[in-house]
Write a structure and sequence with these properties.
- It is a single chain.
- By secondary structure, the chain is α+β, with helices and mostly antiparallel strands.
- It has 3 domains: 85 residues, Rossmann fold, CATH 3.40.50; 60 residues, ATP-grasp fold, A domain (Dna Ligase, domain 1, 2-Layer Sandwich), CATH 3.30.1490; 197 residues, ATP-grasp fold, B domain (D-amino Acid Aminotransferase, Chain A, domain 1), CATH 3.30.470.
- Helix content is 30%, strand content 26%.
- The protein is built from 12 helices and 17 strands.
- The strands form 3 sheets. Strands 9, 10, 11, 12, 13, 14, 15, 16 and 17 form a 9-stranded antiparallel β-sheet that branches.
- β1, α1 and β2 form a beta-alpha-beta unit.
- The chain is globular and about 60 Å long.
- The chain starts with 13 loop residues before the first strand and ends with a helix.
- The relative contact order is 0.12.
- The structure holds adenosine-5'-diphosphate and magnesium ion (MG).
Length: 387
C-alpha cells in the first residue's frame, strides 16, 4: 500500500463489481482489456457479467459472507446498478476503495433525495410534490395534473410509474403501488430527451462525453443519436454544466449519467441520474477514443482520466427481446444477424442472456461512419431488417 489508500490500483490487480448485468459485463471487458482480473457479485448464477468474469460470487447483495469474499478477492469495488443496498457498499468500503460511494448511491436510489440534490445544485427539475402521506396526497397542487406518479424507489425502464389526469386517478394510482413514498411530477411537453455522462476522479478531475439525444419507447430507451447537430449548442452546454455541478455537489467518484428533458422554449430540466455507465453511453465504445466503461475502470483504480473525443457520429439501437418475436408465434427466433452485419459500420453487442423476453434488453447495435448521412442510412436499414 502506498500513502494514498493503495491507489492507483494497477493492471494485474482485481476489480470487483456489484451486479452482473450487461453493464457489469462491459465493465469486466474494459477492465480485462487493460490487464485487470475481475470479480462479480450477483445472485443469478447465469448473469451476463458473471459469465465473462474471472470470479463470480453468487449471493444476495446483502449477504455478509458474499461481501467478505468480494472484499477478499477484489482490490477495489464498483457497482453496475443503483439498487444495491447502500449498507453493502458501506461494509465493503471499510476493507477496500469503493466508487461511487454509498452516500451517492443512496441519493440516486431515491427520487425524493435525488430531486432535493438537484435543487441544492441549482439545477431545475420538473415541478413536483413529494407524496409520502395521505395528507400530502390531498395537498398536492392541481397544477401538477396531468402528471406522472413515480415510486421514489426501485423504478426503472418506466416501471413504477403511472400517468394520472385527475385527482381520482391519482388516488387510485397511489393505492395501486401500496401507498409507498412517491413523487408526483407534472407531465411536461418534451421537445426531446438527452443525457450527459461525466466521469470524476478522486482528485476531482472531471471529464464528459458529448450530450446524447435519446428516444424512449414505452419508458425504455430505444435510440441514442450523438453527433454535432443533435441539439442546439446552448442546450448541450447547459446539460454539460448541470451534469458537472451535480457530480461535484456529490463529491462523486466514478461514471455518472444525468438525464434531461428539453422543452419547447429551449429550457432544460433534469430528470434523473444513474450512478454508473448508462445505456445511452454504449456508443462510446466504438465512437469515442475512450469509452464510459474504461473511464469507470480508471476512476475506480485511481488512474488519470482522459477527456473523451468522439471520432465518429453514432446511432445506437437497443435490441429488446421483442425482436425475437417479430415473426409472430411464441417460439423466439433470432433476428437476421448476417444481414444486419452486412451493413457498413455496424457493431453488434449481445449480452449473453439466454432467454429473450419482451421488454428485456438483449443487446444493442452501434452504427458509426464517416458522415452522419452514412450512419443514418445504415441505422434505418438496420431498423428495417430488424422489423
Ligand atoms: P425510469 O427510471 O423508468 O427511466 P424516468 O423518470 O426516466 O423513469 O421516466 C421514463 C420516461 O418517461 C422518460 O424518459 C420520459 O420519456 C417519460 N417521462 C418521465 N417523466 C416525465 C415528465 N415529467 N413529463 C413527460 N415525460 C416524462
Ligand atoms: Mg429514465
Amino acid at each position: 500500500m502506498n500513502g494514498n489508500n493503495g491507489l492507483p490500483i494497477l493492471p494485474g490487480a482485481t476489480l470487483g463489481v456489484l451486479g452482473g448485468g450487461q453493464l457489469g459485463r462491459m465493465f469486466a471487458h474494459a477492465a480485462q482489456r487493460m490487464g485487470y482480473f475481475t470479480a462479480v457479485l450477483d445472485p443469478d448464477a447465469d448473469s451476463p457479467a458473471g459469465r465473462v468474469s474471472h470470479h463470480h460470487i453468487h449471493t444476495d447483495y446483502a449477504d455478509v459472507d458474499g461481501l467478505a469474499r468480494l472484499a477478499g478477492l477484489a482490490d477495489a469495488v464498483t457497482t453496475e446498478f443503483e439498487n444495491v443496498p447502500a449498507p453493502s457498499l458501506e461494509k465493503l468500503s471499510v476493507a477496500r476503495p469503493v466508487a461511487p460511494d454509498a452516500g451517492a448511491i443512496a441519493i440516486a436510489q431515491d427520487r425524493i433525495a435525488e430531486k432535493a440534490h438537484f435543487t441544492r445544485c441549482g439545477v431545475a427539475c420538473a415541478p413536483y410534490a413529494v407524496i409520502e402521506t395521505a395528507a400530502q396526497l390531498a395537498a398536492a397542487s392541481d397544477m401538477l395534473l396531468p402528471g406522472i406518479l413515480k415510486t421514489a424507489r426501485l423504478g426503472y425502464d418506466g416501471k413504477g410509474q403511472q400517468r394520472v389526469a385527475t385527482r381520482a386517478e391519482l388516488v387510485d394510482a397511489w393505492q395501486a403501488v401500496g401507498c409507498v413514498p412517491c413523487v408526483l411530477e407534472k407531465l411536461l411537453p418534451l421537445e426531446f430527451e438527452c443525457s450527459v455522462i461525466v466521469a470524476r476522479g478522486r482528485d476531482g478531475q472531471l471529464v464528459h462525453f458529448p450530450p446524447q439525444r435519446n428516444l424512449h419507447r414505452d419508458g425504455i430507451l430505444a435510440v441514442t443519436e450523438v453527433h454535432a447537430q443533435n441539439m442546439p449548442k446552448t442546450v448541450a452546454q447547459a446539460a454539460i454544466n448541470s451534469a458537472k455541478s451535480i457530480a461535484t455537489g456529490l463529491d462523486y467518484v466514478g461514471v455518472l449519467c444525468v438525464e434531461f428533458f428539453a422543452l419547447a422554449d429551449g429550457s432544460l430540466v433534469v430528470n434523473e441520474m444513474a450512478p454508473r455507465p448508462h445505456n445511452s453511453g454504449h456508443y462510446t465504445m466504438e465512437a469515442c477514443d475512450v469509452s464510459q466503461f474504461e473511464l469507470q475502470v480508471r476512476t475506480l483504480a485511481g488512474l488519470p482520466l482522459a477527456a473523451p473525443r468522439q471520432h465518429s457520429p453514432a446511432i445506437m439501437l437497443n435490441l429488446l427481446g421483442d425482436l425475437w418475436f417479430t415473426a409472430g408465434g411464441d417460439k423466439p427466433v433470432a433476428p437476421r444477424w448476417s444481414d444486419v452485419l452486412a451493413l457498413p459500420g455496424v457493431h453488434l453487442h449481445l449480452y449473453g442472456k439466454i432467454e429473450p423476453r419482451r421488454g428485456r434488453k438483449m443487446g444493442h447495435l452501434t452504427l458509426t461512419g464517416a458522415t452522419l448521412e452514412n450512419v443514418r442510412a445504415a441505422a434505418s436499414q438496420a431498423a428495417t431488417l430488424l422489423g
